[in-house]
Design goal:
The chain is of the alpha+beta class and 252 residues long. The protein has a single domain, classed as PPM-type phosphatase domain (Phosphatase 2c, domain 1, 4-Layer Sandwich). Helices cover 34% and strands 27% of the residues. It contains eight helices and eleven strands. Strands 2, 3, 4, 5, 6 and 9 form a six-stranded antiparallel beta sheet that branches. A hairpin with a 2-residue loop joins strand 5 and strand 6. Helix 1 packs antiparallel against helix 3. The protein is globular. The relative contact order is 0.21.
């Protein structure tokens, strides 16, 4: 699949530093958004190191993605591609955790990671934290990742309603992060990709201000214009956090 992609990031209106990081590599077909946590504990270091670690591992084993580009794909090839994405995030986890253990002022740092690899008509999505990946198809935005937050868990188990979650004081409590320990559970899913599809990867500094039904019309503006529009929208609506958007259009 040919793709066109663009990315934009902004510090927002209330933060002193941008702790988000992103990756766009159209040649390999890998896209990542990471939202660092820790403030003085160097969330920006965590996000950048995580993105680099994911990228390096995927590039090194990119042949596992290339096997998905043929007309027929063996189940084992798909399993190996999924394992590659999971292993890449595990490598990032070990890297960030190790750096924090040896640098006292960075102890406790961590980051979310939302990653998408496109090969053939397969999209491999790997997720830790509360950044998100959306698939836009036929004028609809479909969230393909699950937030790893306390309120998301409470909603899933019927403890909170969607409305109650909006005002919960625990909205920003993350239950999984890359780097807070030396291992993390990674959600890995496969999405069928069609020509005309688009993807949005974003940090919570964007999706916290965004309704799902607003996404398709902005995505339709094209990757470069859409990313700028998303950042401007988040800032106009408060900009209380760092804002990052990666938009990928699939052209066939």
């Amino acid at each position: 699949m040919r793709t066109r992609a663009a990315a934009a990031t902004d510090v927002g209106r209330r933060r002193a530093h941008n702790e988000d990081a992103y990756l766009v590599d159209e040649e390999v077909g890998i896209y990542v958004v990471a939202d660092g946590m820790g403030g003085h504990a160097a969330g920006d270091v965590a996000s950048r190191e995580a993105v680099d670690a994911v990228h390096n591992m995927v590039v090194r084993d990119r042949a596992k993605l290339s096997r998905l580009a043929g007309p027929s794909v063996e189940p084992e090839a798909l399993r190996q591609a999924k394992r590659l994405m999971e292993s890449a995030i595990q490598a990032a986890t070990y890297m960030v955790f190790g750096i924090a253990q040896h640098t006292p002022d960075q102890k406790g740092m961590g980051t979310t990671v939302s990653a998408l690899a496109i090969a053939g008509n397969h999209g491999i999505v790997a997720q830790v934290g509360d950044s998100r990946v959306y698939l836009v198809r036929d004028g609809r935005a479909i969230r393909v990742t699950e937030d790893h937050t306390l309120v998301a868990w409470q909603i899933k188990h019927g403890i909170l309603s969607e409305e109650e979650a909006e005002s919960s004081p625990h909205r920003n409590v993350i239950t999984r992060a890359v780097g807070s320990r030396d291992y993390v559970q990674v959600d890995v899913d496969v999405v069928h990709v069609e020509p005309g599809d688009a993807f949005l990867l974003c940090s919570d500094g964007l999706h916290g201000y965004l309704k799902d039904d607003e996404i398709p019309s902005i995505i339709a503006l094209g990757p470069l214009t859409a990313t700028k529009k998303f950042v401007a929208m988040a800032n106009e609506r408060g900009g209380k956090d760092n804002i990052t958007a990666v938009v990928v259009h699939v052209e066939g």
